[in-house]
Amino acid sequence: MSEAVETSYGALKVMDSGEFAGWRFWEGDPFETRSGPFYYRREEDGSYTSAFRAEARHMNGGGFMHGGCLLTFADFALFAIATDALAGDHAVTLNLAGDFLGSVQSGALVEARGEVTRGGGKTIFVRGLVTGDGSPALSFTGIIRRLSKR
Amino acid sequence: MSEAVETSYGALKVMDSGEFAGWRFWEGDPFETRSGPFYYRREEDGSYTSAFRAEARHMNGGGFMHGGCLLTFADFALFAIATDALAGDHAVTLNLAGDFLGSVQSGALVEARGEVTRGGGKTIFVRGLVTGDGSPALSFTGIIRRLSKR
Amino acid sequence: MSEAVETSYGALKVMDSGEFAGWRFWEGDPFETRSGPFYYRREEDGSYTSAFRAEARHMNGGGFMHGGCLLTFADFALFAIATDALAGDHAVTLNLAGDFLGSVQSGALVEARGEVTRGGGKTIFVRGLVTGDGSPALSFTGIIRRLSKR
Amino acid sequence: MSEAVETSYGALKVMDSGEFAGWRFWEGDPFETRSGPFYYRREEDGSYTSAFRAEARHMNGGGFMHGGCLLTFADFALFAIATDALAGDHAVTLNLAGDFLGSVQSGALVEARGEVTRGGGKTIFVRGLVTGDGSPALSFTGIIRRLSKR
User: Fold this and answer.
1) How far is the CA of B119 from the CAs of B96, B114, C54, C114, in angstroms?
2) Cα–Cα distance measured from residue C26 to residue A34, given in angstroms and rounded to the nearest whole number
3) Which of A60, B56, B61, B64 could form a disulfide with A9 if both were Cys (CB 3.0 to 4.6 A apart)?
4) Cross-chain Cβ contact C123/A94 below 8 Å
5) What is d(CA C87, CA C74) in angstroms, rounded to the nearest whole number?
6) Reduced to 3 states, what is the DSSP secondary structure of residue C27?
């Protein structure tokens, strides 16, 4: 845990065991931690993958992952995907939109990948795809707004 | 609790005490219950109001309500707003989009109101507004797809 | 036409005859003029209504108004609805999203109404509804970004 | 023009000269033809590219391509991208959302590429990107609904 980065928004830590050993996660975000926790890592090609393992507590009454859980994860993934564009700055989400493509069941590996479609300025545009065991679950777009240097 | 309606998606119950006494809620939706629970009621004008009380567990690392919490509540409100259009049918969310208008702090009364912009057919369109203590927090639109008679 | 307001983006004029006599329109926006022209006016309650008359040239191959025409009109209406929030400032559209609710046929009076869900700052959020002869045609949301004082 | 395919929605033709020789376009869609015409072709990898050349008539009052023009082209591209998923069926747009990433000037080659994020059923989900001379201009998502066999 020596790699933790403390910010006013919580502490960015690195998992040291389990399925997501070596992946980063945030401590100090109550809703995200309760919904997840969600993890992300930088891939060799410079892109960022977000992931978590679906459990019964993420499901809706029909036994599929709740749309709100998918969108909460997408909101997390927005910031993971924009890691380099943000360069440590804080930001807020202006818009998040999702198309629900398919269901995710308990036990599935849930992943999000995407790209910054426009960065550089104060307004950062992202699009991405959430999959469950590799099958498309949510197509999302988001707009985040850089606030200030941390 | 004698008013509970059992469906394959859970049980629709009525709160019998507390701030939301008389409001309906769903039992049997793990993610929604953990995120909320959220409540809704039919108003005298025939519209549906959804509500819950913001707590520390709904906040993000910045001390404001997490966007995923607002969207999870909006997904709940979509179906509350579409109660009459659905007439008891099951449905799934095809699209949910939100514009984040303002922050919500712990302790606030969070409410959602809206209208069906097109119902009647298999595809139902909804728009709504989530407020925190009366201030705009999230403008949302959603498309839900009727599945079948329950 | 003495009421025309000249800006670097064109001239805001007032129609002096025809169905939209007394309504404002922009001169100097080639795509908008070719698609429309579209008109708007301030109502007594302070809201802004946008309108035009559907013609054969606005239709798609199926004989209904083209989705692109509805969205072009919605983009116009975004700025009409935000007239007071903009207070003469220039702005650009960051996001425009539309749910297609119903078809519009040639000859229909097409109108758009809506509200600013959040103004005041640099980012202005709008939602609105386009109707054809009073029937819902397009539910839209938009985010515009104030650029500078004119 | 012997390759024209006649449908109740117009005739699908192939350009026989000019910059888009060999590309397909629709005849009989008044708004699209006036806004464009827009062209598309099948690439060797099975994807579909849409394109047109920006002219002064596509610009707004600021001298950049009008957002409505970009969205009209995106609506065209939705159906081009979904060509194989549609397999000749008619369809309508349920939702079209766009993030405006950058400006396009007169003279630019405007292209759209994308993918079906979910096809197969009655509801087809698409996402894509419009570029101007290769620079990102519009990120879009769309939902189309299959109507019937032609």
Assistant:
1) 16, 13, 24, 20
2) 51
3) B61
4) yes
5) 20
6) strand
Q: Are strands D90-100 and D109-118 parallel, antiparallel or unpaired?
A: unpaired
Q: What does the alpha-carbon distance between residue D54 and residue D132 come to, in Å, rounded to a whole number? A: 9
Amino acid at A84: D
* H helices, E strands: number in chain D: 3, 9
| Number of CB atoms found within 10 A of residue C117's CB | 19
Amino acid at A37: P
Pick from C90, C70, C82, C62: nearest CA to C126:
C82
Place of tokens 């795509």: C31
Which among B47, B127, B36 is positioned nearest to B83, based on CA atoms?
B47
C136:B117 CB<8 A? yes
CB-CB neighbors (< 8 A) of C138 in chain B: none
Q: How far apart are CA A125 and CA A115, in angstroms?
A: 9
Q: pTM of the prediction?
A: 0.95
A96 in Cβ contact with A75 (< 8 Å): yes
Nearest to B99 by CA among D75, D71, C114: C114
At D11 the pLDDT is 87
Q: Going by C-beta distance under 8 Å and a sequence separation of 6 or more, which residues neighbour residue C114?
A: C77, C81, C126, C127, C128, C129, C140
> D33 in helix, strand or coil?
helix
Instruction: Name chain D contacts of C68, Cβ cutoff 8 Å.
Output: 31-32, 35, 68-69, 71-73, 75-76
Other Cβ atoms closer than 10 A to A39: 24
d(C-alpha D98, C-alpha D63), whole Å: 20
Q: Residue A57: which of B26, B31, B100 has the nearest Cβ?
A: B31
- B113, two tokens: 């109101």
d(CA B67, CA A75): 7
Q: What is the pLDDT of residues B62-105, one digit of tens each?
A: 999 999 999 999 999 999 999 999 999 999 999 999 999 999 99
Residue D10 pLDDT class (50, 70, 90 cuts):
confident
* pLDDT at residue D149, rounded to an integer: 53
pLDDT in tens, D39-74: 999 999 999 999 999 999 999 999 999 999 999 999
Please choose, from the candidates B76, B62, B141, the residue with its C-alpha nearest in 3D space to the C-alpha of residue B104: B62
Please give the ipTM for the structure prediction.
Answer: 0.94
Give the CA angle between residues B12, B17, B18 to the nearest 5°. Answer: 110
Residue B97 is encoded by which pair of tokens?
A: 């989009």
**Domains along the sequence of chain B with CATH:** 3-146 (3.10.129.10)
List of E strands, chain A = 5-7, 10-14, 24-27, 39-42, 48-53, 90-100, 109-118, 123-132, 135-148
Instruction: Note whether D137 and D70 are within 8 A (CB).
Output: yes
Q: What is the largest CA-CA distance in chain B?
A: 43
> What is d(CA D104, CA A19) in angstroms, rounded to the nearest whole number?
46
- Chain C residue numbers with beta carbons less than 8 Å from the beta carbon of A97 are 97
